[in-house]
Write a sequence for this structure.
């Protein structure tokens, strides 16, 4: 659906939505899918682009949370393992089985983790991805040839899920639309509308035209992640903040640092966190950190101390010590952690469980949580909206509902695997126009048809949308993404009807963002 058509639908003064979801990240998109698939009139508004924030900046894992088990948060692990299995079944084109190895450097470590991960396997039940087992020193070295051998006693192998986060977000947006929802990016909610004391709508501004839209609805869901307090302030000015933003950063290296299919999990870093080195799109993602941040930002930037920490820690487990010169991209994301009662509690100890809050006015706010549990978070939230708005009760159907593009017979090494069934339609574009089959980037295997598809079918409005989230060029190789930007701008301008000035502004704007993703 074209943007003009979407805006016309939203502009309808007579229409009253069953629910308006504010926020186009994992949680908001999950809510839109759940509500629309139950048959409710659903509108989702995102101030920038889908998954622009936290939801495109994760460790790329769909996991139960080995660390949460260690912390004793058994209920969260049970929930996450169940949801991990459902994501694997519902989106096989986006979620894959990833083996992880924990190298052990003391004699008690091997048995300790072997027993713990057997419990992890048992908790997953029928939705498990594979059994864990102890590895000898020789088997560990064979599995990870680059592992640090000094002091190595063995290892433990276990299985979790790996995925492409922003591609999952786009697929969820498409799924919501498939079930009748209306979704729109670059449309910012600026205020809540009330009748008496109760919320009955929102005002939003279309970022492209500047038009103010007045929207009536039976319920409003605040699913804005780290920005949840901003919407809460619209409802209750002066209310104490409910979110503690915590920054995590990742560096992306070439595959030579982890040349085979196994990921590495470091169970204890100097700051007590877990660190991962994960194969992803023929590269390696290494992270993460846990740094308390005062205020959320739309473009968080990795701190020097965080980068140094990740590189130094990675060097202890890989034979080749990575340096800043080896970093192809570095990105930062903010975790929307629910503020604990004890403000002195370290962020790494704050539960990743979610909370649903309902204000006196009826505003529903969902905070906390993580990508893996997005579906369950959405189910819980929509249940509250149904009750609050007096909507007809209908069962949640998302547990076993295929995500848009669902396809079983995908090849993980295929860079277009993430499109699922849509890949065939993208290839069809190249058959209609041979030029669209040409590579924009040989290094990242991205073709021109992907740009056209992103504009026509995936709501891409800017060069950044395409290079950061419709493809992962910015996150995989920032310098390469800058090189690609002018050609992407040219193709997008032709699709959107924009001139050379727009192209120039887009390239400059993207370069300004991308400069924070690599070291000069």
């Amino acid at each position: 659906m074209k943007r003009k058509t979407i805006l016309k639908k939203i502009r309808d003064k007579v229409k009253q939505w069953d629910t308006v979801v504010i926020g186009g990240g994992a949680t908001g998109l999950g809510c839109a899918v759940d509500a629309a698939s139950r048959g409710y009139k659903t509108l989702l508004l995102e101030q920038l682009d889908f998954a622009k924030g936290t939801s495109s900046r994760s460790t790329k894992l769909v996991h139960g949370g080995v660390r949460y088990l260690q912390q004793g948060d058994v209920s969260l692990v049970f929930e996450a393992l169940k949801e991990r299995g459902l994501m694997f079944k519902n989106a096989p084109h986006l979620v894959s089985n990833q083996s992880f190895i924990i190298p052990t450097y003391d004699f008690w470590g091997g048995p300790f983790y072997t027993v713990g991960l057997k419990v992890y396997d048992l908790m997953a039940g029928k939705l498990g991805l594979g059994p864990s087992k102890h590895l000898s020193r020789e088997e560990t070295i064979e599995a990870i040839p680059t592992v640090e051998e000094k002091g190595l006693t063995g290892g433990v192998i276990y299985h979790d899920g790996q995925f492409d986060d922003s591609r999952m977000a786009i697929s969820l947006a498409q799924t919501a639309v498939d079930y009748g929802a209306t979704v729109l990016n670059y449309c910012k909610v600026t205020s809540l509308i009330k009748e008496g004391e109760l919320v009955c709508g929102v005002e939003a501004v279309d970022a492209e035209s500047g038009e103010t839209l007045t929207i009536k609805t039976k319920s409003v869901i605040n699913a804005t992640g780290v920005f949840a307090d901003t919407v809460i302030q619209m409802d209750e000015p002066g209310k104490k903040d409910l979110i503690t933003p915590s920054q995590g950063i990742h560096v992306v290296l070439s595959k030579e640092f982890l040349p085979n299919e196994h990921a590495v999990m470091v169970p204890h870093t100097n700051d007590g966190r877990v660190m991962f080195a994960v194969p992803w799109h023929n590269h390696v993602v290494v992270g993460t950190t846990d740094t308390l941040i005062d205020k959320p930002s739309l473009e968080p930037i990795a701190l020097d101390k965080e980068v140094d920490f990740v590189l130094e820690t990675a060097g202890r487990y890989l034979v080749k010590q990575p340096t800043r010169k080896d970093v192809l991209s570095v990105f930062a994301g903010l975790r929307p952690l629910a503020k604990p009662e004890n403000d002195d509690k370290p962020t790494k100890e704050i539960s990743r469980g979610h909370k649903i809050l309902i204000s006196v006015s009826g505003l529903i706010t969902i905070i906390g949580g993580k990508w893996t549990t997005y579906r369950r978070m959405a189910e819980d939230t929509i249940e509250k909206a149904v009750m609050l708005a007096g909507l007809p009760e209908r069962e949640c159907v998302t547990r076993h509902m295929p995500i848009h593009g669902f396809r079983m017979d995908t090849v993980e090494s295929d860079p277009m695997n993430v499109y699922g069934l849509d890949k065939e339609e993208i290839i069809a574009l190249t058959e209609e126009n041979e030029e669209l089959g040409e590579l924009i980037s040989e290094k990242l295997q991205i073709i021109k048809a992907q740009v056209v598809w992103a504009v026509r079918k995936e709501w891409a409005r800017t060069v950044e949308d395409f290079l950061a989230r419709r493809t992962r060029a910015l996150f995989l190789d920032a310098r390469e993404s800058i090189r690609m930007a002018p050609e992407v701008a040219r193709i997008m301008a032709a699709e959107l009807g924009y001139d050379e000035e727009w192209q120039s502004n887009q390239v400059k704007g993207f370069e300004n963002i991308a400069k924070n993703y690599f070291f000069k």
Observations:
- Residues 426 and 450 are 7 Å apart (CA to CA).
